[in-house]
Amino acid sequence: MEVTHPATQERAVSGHLSLEAKEQIRQATDIVDLVGHYLQIQRKGRGYVALCPWHDDTRPSLQINPERQSWKCWVCDVGGDVFSFVMKIEGVEFREALEMLAERAGIELAPRRRTAAPTGDGAAAQPGQPEPLDKPTLLRAMAWAEAQYHRCLLDAPEAEPARRYLSERGITDESIAKFRLGFAPDRANWILEQAEGSAARAKVLEAIGILAVRDDGTRYDRFRGRVLFSIHDAQGRPVGLGGRVLPELGTTSPAKYVNSPETPLFAKSHLLYGLDLAKDAIRRGRTALVMEGYTDCIMAHQHGFEDAVAVLGTALGPAHVRILRRYADRVVLVLDGDEAGQRRANEVLELFIAQQVDLRILTLPSGADPCDYLREHGADAFRALVENESVDALEHAIRSATRGVDLAGDVHGASQALEKILSIVAKAPAGEGETKFREAKVLARLARDFGVPEADVRRRLGQLRRRSAPVYRGPAEPAAAEEETPIRLEALAAASPWECHVVELVLAHPALLPAAREAFSLEDFALAPCRRIYEACCRLADEGDEPGLDRLLLEYDEPAMKSLLVSMSESSRVNELTHPEALLEELIARHRRRQTDRQLPAQLAALKAQGLDESQKTDLIEKMMAQLRARHGISEPTDG
Question: How far apart are CA 104 and CA 88, in angstroms?
Answer without folding.
Answer: 17
